Automatic annotation (TrEMBL):
UniProt superkingdom: Bacteria
UniProt keyword Thylakoid present: no
Organism of this sequence: Lutimaribacter marinistellae
Major localization listed first in the record, in broad terms: membrane
Segments forming domain Major facilitator superfamily (MFS) profile: 5-395
Transmembrane feature ranges: 71-91, 103-122, 134-157, 163-182, 278-296, 302-323, 335-360
One Pfam family recorded for the sequence: MFS_1
Name of the protein in its database record: MFS transporter
Keywords linked to the UniProt accession: Membrane, Transmembrane, Transmembrane helix
Length: 395
């Protein structure tokens, strides 16, 4: 694609993703827990309601990624945008916690489509190094994560939870404006086999494609420690006499450090033509920060941990996405990002579970050391990624 076309398509994808992510997060926190509590959900059911959309993505991202390889990206972006825009209107009919679980499953399909399809679209835009593109694109999701909860909390102060969801529908509808401009975006090569056949081949494709499995394990392992920290460190801060504000500041500083790092790390990975080195440096910094968590008693040390985790994650992510795109080639990027995204979701689910088990059975110093080693373990497949890609069997 011409450089101007690349930039215009990138801008359209960025704006669309920012709109739908903002809308989705506006309805997730704090609106979703409040709505579930009003319906009488206990702690177990509340956990299921919050996490069920992650489970949806874990199972369906590979399917939607593969279908976008076969039929093109645009049609699936249209479907995903429709789910983001119109599913929130159904919350007005929710009267039981069972209804809410079922609707969250449906709503989770929207993120399951947008995740692999937008990343594959970014990979399609430029044949050259693309870590910086992934770095900038990651800001759309970060922006939604920051702005969405603020909008949701503000709206919830004045209207009911179902009415908040109706408002988020209006935000998501705005994504149609940039998505419609992508109609002339890059097309995907036709596939020889039917979609049903390709979906049935998913398990064997995963086991045969060692680079894909390796990158999936990297994503899963790297998320375990990160999401354990997101879940338990705020509670540790409160237990040490900190305030809810200080816990919130920790998470916000982490997100801001990650946002500031992503484009710069992506550019560095492209300039060096060595995204694996940047990704491993990011993982090493995250692991070092995890080891520091138990001894971070003061506000200064907590901020150092937050900044280190944010910078490490910001360096790792765009480099990792560039490596996955490079490994997938040109015909299976949707499938690759779908599989890796599904395994990433598995790490998000396992992080709080593994972290909770470790903190329950071990002293905090040992628990976070194990989480740090899990993060470092993600470096092993990256060290061998060049030989893995050489034997790649995608497509």
């Amino acid at each position: 694609m011409h450089r101007t076309s690349v930039l215009s398509a990138f801008a359209a994808l960025f704006l669309a993703d920012f709109a739908v992510r903002t809308a989705y997060m506006a309805g997730k926190s704090p609106v979703l827990p409040v709505f579930a509590d009003q319906l009488g959900a206990n702690e177990v059911i509340l956990g299921a309601i919050v996490s069920v959309s992650t489970l949806t993505g874990m199972l369906s991202k590979p399917v939607f990624g593969m279908l976008s390889d076969r039929y093109g990206r645009w049609i699936w972006l249209m479907l995903g945008t429709a789910l983001f825009a119109f599913t929130p209107l159904l919350y007005s009919g929710v009267t039981t916690t069972e209804d809410l679980v079922a609707l969250r499953l449906l709503h989770g399909l929207a993120t399951a489509i947008y995740g692999p399809v937008t990343l594959a679209f970014i990979a399609d835009l430029d044949a050259g190094p693309k870590a910086e593109l992934f770095g900038w694109f990651g800001l759309s999701r970060t922006g939604g994560y920051i702005l969405g909860p603020l909008i949701g909390g503000l709206l919830l102060s004045y209207v009911s939870a179902p009415q908040v969801y109706a408002c988020t529908s209006l935000i998501a509808v705005l994504a149609y404006i940039p998505v419609l401009s992508l109609r002339t975006g890059p097309r995907n090569a036709a596939k020889k086999h039917s979609a049903t056949y390709q979906i049935s081949e998913l398990p064997s494709l995963l086991t045969r494609n060692r680079p894909l499995l390796g990158f999936g394990l990297v994503e899963m392992s790297s998320r375990v420690g990160l999401y354990a920290v997101k879940t338990f460190l705020p509670l540790m801060i409160l237990a040490q006499g900190g305030t809810p504000l200080s816990a919130g500041v920790f998470l916000s500083v982490q997100e801001m450090a990650m946002a500031a790092t992503r484009p710069l790390a992506g550019r560095l990975a492209d300039r060096l033509r060595a995204p694996e080195k940047v990704a491993m440096a990011g993982l090493a910094l995250m692991a070092a920060a995890l080891v520091m968590v138990p001894s971070a008693k003061s506000a200064d040390l907590l901020m150092l941990v937050a900044i280190s985790i944010g910078i490490g994650n910001g360096a790792y992510h765009p480099a990792a996405m560039a490596m996955i795109a490079r490994a997938a080639g040109t015909d299976a990027t949707g499938f690759a990002f779908g599989i890796v995204g599904g395994m990433r979701n598995m790490g998000k689910l396992l992080g709080p579970i593994i972290g909770g088990a470790l903190l329950f059975t071990l002293p905090h110093e040992y628990a976070f050391t194990v989480l740090a080693l899990t993060t470092l373990g993600a470096m092993a497949p990256i060290m061998h990624q060049r030989s893995l890609i050489k034997n790649n069997q995608f497509g």
